[in-house]
Amino acid sequence: MKKIKLLAVCAVLAAAGSALAQNVVAPAPQNVLQLTASGTVEVQQDLLSMTLVTTRDAADAATVQTQLKAALDAALTEAKKNAQAGQLDVRTGNFSLSPRYTKDGRINGWQGSTEMVLEGRDFPRITQTAGRISTLSVGNVGFGLSREQRAKTEAEAQNIAIENFKQKANELAKGFGFGGYTLREVSVNANDGGPIRPRVMAMQAKSFSADSAVPVEAGKTSVVVSVSGSVQLK
Question: For 189, which of 36, 77, 109, 219 is 20 to 30 Å away at the CA?
Answer without folding.
Answer: 219
